[in-house]
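Subject: for your reference before the review

Hello V.,

The reviewers asked for a structural picture of the protein, and I figured it would be easier to keep everything in one thread rather than splitting it across files. Below is the amino acid sequence we used in the manuscript, unchanged from the supplementary table.
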Amino acid sequence: MNRYVTLIAAAASFVAIAPAFAQSAACSSRDEVLKQLSAEYSEAPIAMGIASNGGVVEFLSAPAGQSWTIILTLPNGLSCLIAAGESWESVPAIAKRDPKA
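And here is what came back from the structure prediction:
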């Protein structure tokens, strides 16, 4: 779970530019975006979090990690592609170090 927190925090930094970004990015309804990513890349959501503006950041990946996409769904229901790439790999959670040790 911790690995997703870092990724969500990084993606959430895009939230500040979302209104301007939405005008030039690939945006549509969430259902349409998910349908398109599923049909073309076999991607499905694997993690999500709520951004400070109330938007939802979602990470999608193909079953074997061949491709991945990050989308941001704004409170008005518009979903925009934030980033996409190849070779998604989940990493094991790193145990927190005991400060008393």
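For the response letter, the relevant points are probably these. The beta strands are 27-29, 44-50, 56-61, 67-73, 78-86. The chain is about 30% helix and 30% strand.

Happy to draft the paragraph if you're swamped.

O.
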